[in-house]
């Protein structure tokens, strides 16, 4: 154990120039390459999946182009995000731990378990608040249902046709293949759910939006920290998409098609804005959550592995793997915590760091700590 006396502060050097961080606005080449690659692959999939555009609806071309751009933006930002030193280390360690010899089958089960708990069931939100969890679940499943219906229809991969033998029934045409084994009456309950699936998704999203807005209006903690571009704007866009989509059905069923063209144009604009906002706004955390499953592996492996002990009080305070990774990552971020007495400030637990800060403050003022 080292001497518990606080290490001396390094002398101040007024002659050293002050380094002002400069924001890098250049495009990332790797992100561009991956983004263009995935956008190209999706375009090829649309071409062949719609039987060389035979089953592609030209009226949905704008939605298709906006989706391809959104995919490019998501992939570009994801690649750039993965290149950040902390994220890159988590990503690297996560795969190393996942592919450990003799543990791959076990890790596969843990992967699906973590994916279910954190992506589908979202237990970490339910522990915080059941009302918040319900809001997330409504919005999550509303978006999932909408995506599963909208994207295949937009790409020309999915369409509905009348059954030749019984014209009142519909069948699904998937990738140009008629699924004769699955037909349903157009006026049945199943037919209603299929034809109004987007309306069901819109109702779920609106319910979740109402709960979220209620919390953001009444919760003082939310009012103090929320931002319009990050917290309110995504709700406005999602609300606009849901309402205008339901207005299309209302125009057909109750207004004899009145205002349909105006509603269609408005709905298209709201969807375009939502898709363009997707890679750059709060909804991007949906894709980040996928990589966070690897963080769960990292923490589980660290908890079961060797633990790092504080060089001052000899208390275990983090995993040895995390301590070693911090010593590797922080210099890349311009934070060099090496020190002659303790080797590295990361060798001290948080409690001792706070204590040494207080002791050094007394030393700097020429007073003795009692």
The number of helices is: 14
Order of helices and strands: HHHHHHEEEHHHHHHEEHEEH
Rg over C-alpha atoms, rounded to the nearest angstrom: 28 Å
Q: Let me know the number of strands.
A: 7
Mean pLDDT: 83
Give the proportion of residues in helices. Answer: 55-70%
Key traits:
single chain, 370 residues, mainly alpha, three-stranded antiparallel β-sheet, two-stranded antiparallel ribbon, 14 helices
Could you provide a short overview of the structure?
The chain is mainly α and 370 residues long.
Please give a structural write-up.
The protein is mostly helical and 370 residues long. The chain is 64% helix and 8% strand. It has helices spanning 29-49, 61-82, 85-98, 104-120, 123-128, 130-155, 189-195, 197-218, 220-225, 228-254, 260-277, 285-304, 320-332, 350-365, and strands at 158-162, 169-174, 177-185, 307-309, 316-319, 338-339, 343-344. It has a 3-stranded antiparallel β-sheet with strand order 1-2-3. Helix 2 runs parallel beside helix 11 (260-277), helix 4 crosses helix 12 (285-304) and helix 8 (197-218) packs antiparallel against helix 10 (228-254). 16% of the residues are buried. The model has no long low-confidence stretch (mean pLDDT 83).
Q: Secondary-structure map with pairings?
A:
Blueprint: H1 29-49, H2 61-82, H3 85-98, H4 104-120, H5 123-128, H6 130-155, E1 158-162, E2 169-174, E3 177-185, H7 189-195, H8 197-218, H9 220-225, H10 228-254, H11 260-277, H12 285-304, E4 307-309, E5 316-319, H13 320-332, E6 338-339, E7 343-344, H14 350-365
Antiparallel strand pairs: 1-2, 2-3, 4-5, 6-7
């Amino acid at each position: 154990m080292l001497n518990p006396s606080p290490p001396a502060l390094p002398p101040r050097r007024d002659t050293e120039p002050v380094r002002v961080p400069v924001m890098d606005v250049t495009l990332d080449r790797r992100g561009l390459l991956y983004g263009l690659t995935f956008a190209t692959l999706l375009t090829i999939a649309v071409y062949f999946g719609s039987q060389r555009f035979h089953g592609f609806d030209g009226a949905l071309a704008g939605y298709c182009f906006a989706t391809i751009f959104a995919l490019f933006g998501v992939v570009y930002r994801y690649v750039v995000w993965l290149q950040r030193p902390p994220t890159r280390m988590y990503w690297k360690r996560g795969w190393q731990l996942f592919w450990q010899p003799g543990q791959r089958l076990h890790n596969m089960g843990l992967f699906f378990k973590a994916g279910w708990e954190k992506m589908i069931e979202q237990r970490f939100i339910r522990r915080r608040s059941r009302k918040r969890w319900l809001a997330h679940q409504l919005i999550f499943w509303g978006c999932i249902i909408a995506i599963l219906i909208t994207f295949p229809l937009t790409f020309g991969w999915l369409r509905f046709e009348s059954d030749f033998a019984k014209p009142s029934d519909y069948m699904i045409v998937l990738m140009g293949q008629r699924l004769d084994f699955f037909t349903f009456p157009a006026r049945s309950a199943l037919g209603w759910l299929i034809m109004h699936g987007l309306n069901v998704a819109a109702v779920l999203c609106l319910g979740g939006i109402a709960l979220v807005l209620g919390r953001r209006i009444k919760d003082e903690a939310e009012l103090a920290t929320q931002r319009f571009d990050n917290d309110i704007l995504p709700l406005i866009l999602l609300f606009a998409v849901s309402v205008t989509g339901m207005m299309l059905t209302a125009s057909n069923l109750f207004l004899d098609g009145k205002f349909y063209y105006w509603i269609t144009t408005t709905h298209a604009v709201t969807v375009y804005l939502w898709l363009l906002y997707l890679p750059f706004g709060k909804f991007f955390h949906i894709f980040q959550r996928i990589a966070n499953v690897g963080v769960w592996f990292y923490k589980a492996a660290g908890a079961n592995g060797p633990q790092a002990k504080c060089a001052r009080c000899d208390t275990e305070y983090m995993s040895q793997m995390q301590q070693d990774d911090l010593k590797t990552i922080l210099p890349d971020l311009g934070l060099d915590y090496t020190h002659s007495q303790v080797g590295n400030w990361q060798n001290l637990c948080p409690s001792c760091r706070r204590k040494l800060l207080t002791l050094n403050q007394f030393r700097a003022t020429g007073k003795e700590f009692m």
